[in-house]
């Protein structure tokens, strides 16, 4: 028996009853013939009810838009207030001395100098060191978590790695100053020699396995196994020789001061490691099992699937993870303030990580207390100029990572 059609006119509070619940109540009491669709009764609202509904919808959308715009407005206000106090310095002192000179004497009474080139070089040096520490280890750990280790092990290891992000930066700085700095100064050479094996051996083993598979993928099945083991032995011998030479070279080094760029780079690399591992592992997981299974179905090995299929598909997310790790390292304050040595100099040569350096964040944190006493002076505004440069670089890195992620998703989606 066909359900009766009904025309219902709702006004007042009843007009705001959800339509789906109302239709469900009507359909529950209706009987239909098997195989035929049910007819839903139309819902008519009065003009006043529709007007109230539009007003409520407009207010709700406006409220949600205001909530989501708070973060954007906060960033814009931060840019505005920092730029407001940074531009007076550039108007008074110009750009040339700030970006090209290494003479940093902002507290001089007669003729203060504001050459920040050495500070920019110090920031870039410790950031580069942190990337060298974090990126190979982080990407290799993400690959192991995604495609090598069992799922049960991944569920335990990944949260442990992410716990590193919860440790306060001042605790890292205290460890770098009290524990790592004396170790580097007293026996830094032997420690670096051992560290080469600890870090280099797993990376070399993973690289050797992948390279051996790639080198023998064109051979017949009978010869592939023998050739693969031969390639592993040959590449392994080369890796052992390289690690041995590097270890002996580093063992003979003498480190005069434990508070240097190397100390800070190691700690910043450890601090950036959770970001690189987590974002890279998410990018590798987003590739999907279908792409991996399709590669296996075409006869590819695990190494071929990883190198030729998974990593190219996840390259955008991995690059975004590297950029986020760079932002984590360059914006850190407490560690570089406590363990970098705070020496306004360019190392000789510039890539010498064993000399003290000074960074932008450490300079801002260390000098703001004294510069605040002379608010409005060039010494005060130069710190805001540094903060503006740092904020601009971080914003550019963030925009670049978002663009890379969107481009990778668009490419993966066809």
What does this structure look like?
- The chain contains 14 helices and four strands.
- The chain has 414 residues and is mainly α.
- It has a two-stranded parallel sheet with strand order 1-2. The protein has a two-stranded antiparallel ribbon with strand order 3-4.
- α2 crosses α14, α4 packs parallel to α8 and α6 runs antiparallel to α7.
- The longest helix has 47 residues.
- The chain starts with 7 loop residues before the first strand and ends with a helix.
- The N terminus is likely disordered.
Question: Main sheet, how many strands, which sense, barrel?
Answer: 2 strands, parallel
Topology order in helix (H) and strand (E) letters: EHEHHEEHHHHHHHHHHH
> Quick check: average pLDDT?
81
Please identify, by name, the CATH architecture of the largest domain: Orthogonal Bundle
The radius of gyration is 30 Å
The count of helical stretches stands at 14
Number of domains: 3
Principal-axes geometry comes out as flat
Uncertain runs are: 1-28, 30-42
* CATH fold node name of the largest domain: MetI-like fold
Topology:
Blueprint: E1 8-10, H1 19-29, E2 43-45, H2 47-93, H3 96-100, E3 104-105, E4 113-114, H4 117-148, H5 151-163, H6 169-215, H7 221-251, H8 261-286, H9 289-297, H10 302-313, H11 315-330, H12 334-339, H13 360-371, H14 378-412
Parallel strand pairs: 1-2
Antiparallel strand pairs: 3-4
Helix pairs in contact: 2-14, 4-8, 4-11, 5-8, 6-7, 6-8, 8-11, 9-10, 11-14, 13-14
Features:
single chain; 414 residues; mainly alpha; MetI-like fold; 3 domains; two-stranded parallel ribbon; two-stranded antiparallel ribbon; 2% strand; disordered N terminus
């Amino acid at each position: 028996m066909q359900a009766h059609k009904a025309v219902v006119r709702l006004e007042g509070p009843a007009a705001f009853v959800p339509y789906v619940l109302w239709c469900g109540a009507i359909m529950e009491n209706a009987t239909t013939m098997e195989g035929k669709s049910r007819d839903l009764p139309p819902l008519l609202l009065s003009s006043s009810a529709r007007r109230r509904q539009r007003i409520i919808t407009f207010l709700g959308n406006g409220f949600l838009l205001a909530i989501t715009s708070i973060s954007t407005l906060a960033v814009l206000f931060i840019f505005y207030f920092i730029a407001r106090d940074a531009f007076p310095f550039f108007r008074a002192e110009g750009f040339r001395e700030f970006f090209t000179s290494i003479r940093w004497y902002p507290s001089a009474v007669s003729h203060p100098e504001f050459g920040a080139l050495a500070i920019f070089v110090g920031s870039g040096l410790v950031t580069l060191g942190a990337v060298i520490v974090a990126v190979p280890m982080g990407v290799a750990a993400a690959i192991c978590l995604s495609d090598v280790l069992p799922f049960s092990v991944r569920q335990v290891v990944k949260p442990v790695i992410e716990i590193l992000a919860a440790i306060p930066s001042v605790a890292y700085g205290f460890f770098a100053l009290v524990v790592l700095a004396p170790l580097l100064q007293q026996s830094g050479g032997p420690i670096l020699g051992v560290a080469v094996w600890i870090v280099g051996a797993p990376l070399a083993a993973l690289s050797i396995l992948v390279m051996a598979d790639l080198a023998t993928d064109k051979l017949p099945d009978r010869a592939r196994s023998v050739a693969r083991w031969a390639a592993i032995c040959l590449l392994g011998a080369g890796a052992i020789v390289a690690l041995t030479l590097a270890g002996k070279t580093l063992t003979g080094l003498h480190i005069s001061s434990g508070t240097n760029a190397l100390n800070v780079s190691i700690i910043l690399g450890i601090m950036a490691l959770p970001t690189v591992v987590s974002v890279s592992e998410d990018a590798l997981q987003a590739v999907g099992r279908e792409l991996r299974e399709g590669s296996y179905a075409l006869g590819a090995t695990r190494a071929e699937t990883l190198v030729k299929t998974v990593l190219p598909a996840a390259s955008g997310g991995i690059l975004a993870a590297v950029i986020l790790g760079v932002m984590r390292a360059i914006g850190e304050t407490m560690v570089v303030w406590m363990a970098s040595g705070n020496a306004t100099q360019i190392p000789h040569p510039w890539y010498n990580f064993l000399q003290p350096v000074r960074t932008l964040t450490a300079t801002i944190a260390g000098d703001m207390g004294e510069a605040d006493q002379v608010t409005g002076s060039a010494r005060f505004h130069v710190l805001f100029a540094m903060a503006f440069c740092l904020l601009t670089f971080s914003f550019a890195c963030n925009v670049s990572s978002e663009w890379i992620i969107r481009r990778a998703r668009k490419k993966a989606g066809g």
